[in-house]
Specification:
Largest sheet: 7 strands, parallel
Distance between the termini: 52 Å
Shape: globular
Number of strands: 11
Strand content: 15-25%
Order of helices and strands: EHEEHEHHEHEEHEEHEHEHHH
Length: about 300
């Protein structure tokens, strides 16, 4: 039987080349030796011990997880997935599409294989699993359907993980922001680039969000990987606010022109073929904060944006 890799590792991660993954590599690398499980492009960063391209078939994925466990891998952190909300919408209802395969089938197979091999599985999800009609949401709140296909595939992925493994942990993160990434923007970067160019930024004043500093998300991942809690956790920033209010805070932090920020509505900014966004997807993270006992601290938005100044 061909070996998938040679060096021993502690934590295997998917999605390390993406926005969230690249933003947490440094913190994870200080705690663990990392194995980068990638689809197309290997990740770069201090602390990555080796890179393995993920197999395409379920049977090869199961064999890979079995071998990882025999080589000392304690946990798998599944950050990866298809996360472009509007691109996912073009596949709406397609259970053979890339979004469904990455956000439902792969997490299910990881959970199944980890449960069989005794490897801890931590799956990263999103506030978009909720339709946003009755937020903010606690970990105990149940979603019956999402506002768009991206959120729906993530919701179905959560259900598949929970049905397959009683020991897996799922952490929903909300609107992450942090250092610049070459392929992905966040709300802070978007506001800064628009205002710096003298362009109008239209921010919805009727949406409630909990933007989350990537450093806090990294701390959450570390805590979950070092502990055995299972089920749903929320990781949302400490400030509940609208995108309009977030834009004002960003402008004030960086000394940009607030007059370029216009109050708008969620309906007005999701026209032209864009997927519908949830109105009130804000997350309350009471379980995470209570169980972590101070190991995880979720900062407010103004404090988080200040880290980027």
């Amino acid at each position: 039987m061909t070996s998938f890799f040679d060096p021993p590792v502690t934590v295997a991660c998917t999605g390390l080349s993406g926005f969230v993954g690249s933003g947490v590599i440094e913190a994870l690398g200080k705690q663990f030796t990392l194995l980068d499980l990638f689809h197309s492009s290997p990740a770069l960063g201090v602390g990555i011990g080796d890179h393995i391209q993920l197999p395409h078939s379920d049977s090869d994925l199961n064999r890979l997880v079995d071998e990882l466990s025999t080589r000392g891998v304690r946990s798998i952190l599944n950050i990866g997935g298809v996360a472009s909300v509007d691109a996912c919408e073009s596949e709406s209802g397609d259970r053979s599409g890339s979004a469904f395969l990455a956000n439902v089938i792969q997490p299910r197979e990881f959970a199944r294989s980890c449960a069989h091999s005794g490897v801890r599985f931590v799956h990263v999800s999103t506030d978009y699993v909720f339709d946003g009609k009755e937020g903010p949401y606690r970990e105990s709140d149940v979603s019956d359907g999402a506002a768009n296909w991206y959120g729906e595939t993530k919701r179905l992925g959560e259900l598949a993980v929970l049905e397959t493994s009683a020991t897996a942990a799922i952490v929903r993160i909300a609107l992450p922001y942090g250092p610049d990434h070459p392929r992905k923007s966040d709300i802070v970067r978007l506001v800064r680039s628009r205002l710096a160019a003298g362009e109008i930024f239209a921010g919805a004043a009727d949406q409630l969000i909990t933007p989350t500093w990537l450093g806090d998300i990294a701390e959450t991942f570390v805590w979950l990987l070092n502990n055995s809690g299972s089920g749903i956790y929320h990781c949302g920033g400490a400030t509940l606010l609208s995108p309009y209010e977030a834009a004002l805070i960003t402008a004030r932090t960086f000394g940009l022109d607030e007059s370029l920020i216009q109050r708008s509505t969620l309906a007005a900014i999701t026209v032209g073929g864009r997927a519908r966004r949830p109105q009130l997807p804000a997350l309350l993270s009471s379980r995470l904060l209570a169980e972590s006992g101070g190991a995880v601290r979720l900062c407010g938005f103004a404090e988080g944006v200040g880290h980027l100044r």
